[in-house]
Design brief:
The protein is α/β, with parallel strands linked by helices. It is built from 11 helices and 12 strands. The protein has helices at about 10-15, 20-30, 45-55, 65-70, 70-80, 100-120, 140-150, 160-165, 170-175, 205-215, 235-250, and strands at about 5, 35, 55-60, 85-90, 125, 135, 140, 155, 185, 190, 195-200, 220-225. The longest helix has 19 residues, at about 100-120.
Length: about 250
């Protein structure tokens, strides 16, 4: 079964006002893993204590491209320090992704980063944000990226919401690149075109089909995330976990 985690951005406002209480609440909801930023700075001592006390573990750590390219050993060390299972980057500056050739250059950079991190035993992932579905001469940027990257050194962390925001079907996309996915962000929305967030499994995305793929292809990490809410962020995070667990239980073979 995949491991289920929560991206801490979901509870970003709660964390600002009550870091310790929010981490404890995440554990009480039943989450076992969290995904967060890599260099935790002032929060490090508190985080270390809370991980020990609550049993929460780090799924993956996020880093910007500059850190990944200029400080690969520091990234490896951070992942080892926190027992993180992967390093992920979430964004490519718009000025760096204006053409098909730009995406080929990004692929070269990703291959170098991935090879550097692999030397330290850390897998490298990229989180999709929707702009990767822009087409250049009929070919999507994400397809250029996948063609030009080495599976040994680079894997995807698709975000179901942002895949659909980019104009693709999330289930079909995940099936297309099933062998290149190591982690998946689960995020849902009510309907197009406004695409307001709703708890995972209660919206327009075929979450049952996507979770079926996760089981079929043994994806290791399912990371829940929400950015906008109808309920309180804590209520949403708890409800998302319950929904995902229920769907996985229904899909589990007898």
């Amino acid at each position: 079964m995949p491991n289920i985690g929560l991206q801490l951005y979901t509870l970003r406002d709660d964390l600002k006002t009550d870091f310790e209480g929010t981490l404890r609440a995440i554990a009480q909801m039943g989450y076992e893993y969290i995904e967060t930023t890599g260099f935790m700075g002032e929060h490090s001592p508190t985080m270390k204590r809370l991980l020990n006390e609550t049993g929460l573990q780090i799924a993956g750590l996020g880093f910007d491209l500059h850190a990944l390219e200029t400080q690969p050993q520091a990234v490896i060390d951070a992942c080892k320090q926190w027992n993180a299972h992967y390093a992920v980057t979430f964004w490519i500056d718009e000025a760096q992704r204006q053409s098909a050739d730009d995406w080929k250059r990004i692929a070269e950079r990703f291959n170098r980063i991935g090879e550097s991190l692999a030397a330290g035993g850390v897998p490298f992932l990229y989180h999709l944000h929707g702009y990767e579905f822009i087409e250049y001469d009929g070919k999507r940027a994400v397809d250029i990226l996948m063609e030009q990257t080495d599976p040994r050194y680079f894997a995807l962390e698709p975000d179901t919401y942002w895949v659909e925001y980019g104009g693709a079907d999330a289930r079909a996309f995940c099936e297309q690149y099933a062998d290149r996915i190591r982690a998946l962000h689960l995020k849902d929305y009510i309907s197009k075109p406004e695409m307001h967030d709703i708890e995972v499994g209660e919206g327009a995305i075929d979450m049952r089909g996507i979770l079926q793929l996760a089981l079929q292809h043994n994806w290791q990490w399912l990371i829940i995330e929400q950015e906008r809410y109808i309920r309180t962020p804590r209520e949403s995070a708890a409800r998302c976990l319950q929904n995902v667990q229920r769907l996985l239980q229904a899909l589990r073979p007898e």
